[in-house]
Write a structure and sequence with these properties.
The chain has 348 residues and is an alpha+beta fold. It has seven helices and 21 strands. Helix content is 19%, strand content 44%. The longest helix is centred in the middle third of the chain and has 15 residues. The relative contact order is 0.08. The mean pLDDT is 87.
Length: 348
């Protein structure tokens, strides 16, 4: 495309393919007369005096720096993300410097036809201190929901600490924690809002497995209305793939953990069984330790009518029953538990 007969309204510079006009002005004149973004002259920065979070567009956003970081985030959220920038400039960025004494410098950067451009603004601002919901809850030790993480059996200190690390790793969860206690039977975590508690429960369930149960409990009357708090219980059997358990009177191997589901292999029938953590906990199971059973690597030397004979690495020759066909030479594991022998096929 070729530009002819068009000139900058301010300086008279001719328009070209490399330097098209913007609103009738060349780039240099545009930057002198117009603005890349609608930067406000005055800003009221609502900020928590305890954690430094900033209230922007109806939400509290954590910030770790001083006024410069807070102002930068405010302008990005209220100007850039709201589309209050000139359409000819893309990927607009904001840098705030020299904030102090209620004044700050704002540098707006972008590019036009691959040429970097920037504009400087000076704004006035004041900080309005207001406790965010989390810090207010911490101050009053109040909460809206409690998450109780419970395990099958007494959890180790390592397991309890892992729960704490997982919760602290997600800012939207950790920023709403008002109390955290490690107990003998698990972990109790209080939250300043219900959505964060549910998010934490779902996140832990996705990583550790288990099942979730919710209930509301009455905590008095506020303004003539009954006020309840949410109680969430996450029950987690401490299992990992490869472990052996006794479940439904059968010896089973844990194959996979899928949120609230378990995939098991019944070693008696050589069948895959799927069950829920809820059923596993309600029906009862026993988690075995390596001291409860013995494992031998073996090779099938004879198979006939559901009975096999195998030669094992330990030097033993064992006989056992197995419901599926096995080929001579096939590698297996023979697991001895309570004087009974179970066969595990080594697939692949």
């Amino acid at each position: 495309m070729s530009f002819t007969g068009r000139f900058c309204l301010r300086c008279g510079k001719r328009e070209s393919d490399e330097e098209p006009l913007i609103d009738g002005l060349c780039l240099d004149c545009f930057l002198k007369e117009r603005a890349l973004a609608k930067i406000p002259n005055n800003v009221v920065l609502v900020r928590c005096p305890v954690c430094g979070s900033v209230y922007v567009s109806g939400s509290w956003v954590p910030t770790s720096g001083g006024d410069e970081e807070a102002l930068s985030h405010y302008i990005v959220e209220t100007v850039v993300k709201k589309g209050k920038t000139h359409e000819s400039f893309k990927d607009v960025q904001v840098v705030v410097t020299n904030a102090g004494n209620n004044r700050a410098e704002v540098l707006v950067r972008s590019s036009f036809m691959s040429k970097p451009v920037e504009q400087a603004f000076t704004i006035n601002y004041r900080v309005e201190a207001r406790l965010c919901p989390r810090c207010l809850s911490v101050k009053t030790r109040d909460y809206e929901a409690i998450l109780q993480v419970r395990f099958a059996g007494e959890p180790s200190e390592v397991v309890r600490r892992r729960v704490g690390k997982l919760i602290s790793s997600v800012r939207s969860i950790s920023s709403n924690v008002t109390d955290y206690k490690e107990l003998r039977e698990g972990v109790d975590v209080k939250f300043s809002n219900v959505s964060a508690a549910r998010q934490a429960a779902n996140y832990l369930q996705g990583v550790l497995g288990g099942y979730i149960k919710e209930s509301w409990k009455l905590h008095g009357v506020v303004g003539g209305k009954r006020h309840g708090k949410l109680s969430i219980v996450l029950r987690i059997p401490q299992l990992i793939p490869g472990e052996l358990i006794v479940y439904r009177n059968s010896l089973m191997e844990v194959l996979d953990i899928q949120r609230d589901k378990l995939v098991l292999r019944d070693l008696t029938k050589d069948e895959v069984v799927k069950t829920s953590f809820k059923s596993l906990t309600k029906e009862g199971f026993r988690q075995l330790s390596p001291e409860d059973y013995a494992v031998d690597e073996c090779e099938v030397i004879k198979f006939e009518e559901g009975r096999l004979t195998a030669s094992c690495v330990s030097g033993a020759v064992v006989e056992a029953s197995f419901p599926k066909h096995l080929s001579v030479g096939e590698r297996i594991q023979v697991i001895t538990y309570k004087d009974l022998k179970y066969v595990k096929r080594l697939r692949g």
